[in-house]
Amino acid sequence: MLRREWEALSSAFSFFTRLPFKPGRFCLEQGVLYLPLVGLFLGAYSYFFVKFLKNLLNLKFLALFLLASLYYLADYFHFDGLLDTIDALAAGGGRERRLKVLKTPDVGALGLLFAFFFLLGEYLLVCETLKKEMIWPLILRPLVGREALAFLSLLSRPAKKEGLGFLFLSTSRRRLCLTQLFWLPLLWWEPLSTLVVLTFVLLWRIRLEMAFGGLTGDLLGATVMFSQWLFLAFSLVGGGKPPW
User: What residues make up the domain containing 78?
Assistant: First the structure.
């Protein structure tokens, strides 16, 4: 039992991060239970990164290096899906053409333009968060992204019977349901920004169903990136302080 759970935990970290976990048996269908732990690990990393370097680096460079390290550790994987999603949504034609664009490794001009403004906005949000000494939104941000991914997975179905999206969406739904318990402390801690993310996921699901007929790995990655961005933005509006 313990060995099986260790393999599930290792599978989650090896799939969603660059950490050198090597599960004896890859079992993502069980590893989905540990998605929140991936988010909490990245949140803890953000906290210690800021704590130890805030007196050594200028605030702007601190924000830049924090984002760069998080992208290297985990978010690059989802960011690639975000750009593919933008290109596919902008593509003409029907669902089959959009799904074909999703599989294309090249990034179009619109994807590059969107990437610039997305990253610039994210960088400015992190700078403002650090300037206001609002550490909790940075800690909770990765957890929210992984929770949104799991929530959307529960609401939808795979758009095709192949690829990483199909693999992930074929996982244990009971375990995916258990991950949703983390929304409760998030709603208590950051009610405004958490509600915005939940509303976004519900509306985003409708848009993806219309455009693609279901989910793929790229669409799930885009969900993580959008959710993290929105959570950080609306945390600034709400003040980013714990309720106690």
Answer: 30-227
